[in-house]
């Protein structure tokens, strides 16, 4: 098993790498298409602006290879913007095009008097608690969030969990061996590490 963490100039790369190392996984940073060879799992972390992240993926020649990886139903984990980039577009960068793997767009939280970004611990409610991604996790577990935009997924079967903040939004997507989270497993202590273990075991 070899986990590749996509280094495209954005994202909390080393904390994601350290989280996988903490659970005993072989993990390394990859920044070229050639380095995807030999990997069993691919992780796309993300912090930053939707358009910049998409542009950086293209600049490093990784946009299409990542898309092809997912199309082949190889294990993929998207975190935060690495989740949002799976969608078709985002309000943050109207001219940018996402990977288009999932139907929908990323929208800014409505102004309802709550602080934006949504930052800190919040409870996640699975749509199918029997899915193995939730193995050995508590009912409706808490994870750590940092984001100002949420995913408006259009296909209900892709939605694996919801969370409440300003509105009820899809906080996790699963399709085959694709798993994507709006929260940060690498910052979510025991629950986050358990979820990473479950991802590797899918």
UniProtKB/TrEMBL annotation:
Domain Glutamine amidotransferase: 5-200
Reactions listed under catalytic activity: L-glutamine + H2O = L-glutamate + NH4(+); 5-[(5-phospho-1-deoxy-D-ribulos-1-ylimino)methylamino]-1-(5-phospho-beta-D-ribosyl)imidazole-4-carboxamide + L-glutamine = D-erythro-1-(imidazol-4-yl)glycerol 3-phosphate + 5-amino-1-(5-phospho-beta-D-ribosyl)imidazole-4-carboxamide + L-glutamate + H(+)
Main location: cytoplasm
CDD domains named among the record's database cross-references: GATase1_IGP_Synthase
E.C. number: 4.3.2.10, 3.5.1.2
Alphabetical GO biological process terms: L-histidine biosynthetic process
Metabolic or biological pathway: Amino-acid biosynthesis; L-histidine biosynthesis; L-histidine from 5-phospho-alpha-D-ribose 1-diphosphate: step 5/9
A single GO cellular-component term on record: cytoplasm
Record's keyword annotation contains Chloroplast: no
Compartment annotation: Cytoplasm
GO MF annotations, alphabetized: glutaminase activity; imidazoleglycerol-phosphate synthase activity; lyase activity
Domain of life: Bacteria
Keywords recorded for this protein, A-Z: Amino-acid biosynthesis, Cytoplasm, Glutamine amidotransferase, Histidine biosynthesis, Hydrolase, Lyase
Active site (catalytic residues): 80, 184, 186
Cited function: IGPS catalyzes the conversion of PRFAR and glutamine to IGP, AICAR and glutamate. The HisH subunit catalyzes the hydrolysis of glutamine to glutamate and ammonia as part of the synthesis of IGP and AICAR. The resulting ammonia molecule is channeled to the active site of HisF.
Quaternary organization: Heterodimer of HisH and HisF.
Family matches, as PANTHER family: IMIDAZOLE GLYCEROL PHOSPHATE SYNTHASE SUBUNIT HISH (PTHR42701:SF1)
Protein name in UniProt: Imidazole glycerol phosphate synthase subunit HisH
Species the sequence originates in: Persicirhabdus sediminis
Phylogenetic placement of the source organism: Bacteria, Pseudomonadati, Verrucomicrobiota, Verrucomicrobiia, Verrucomicrobiales
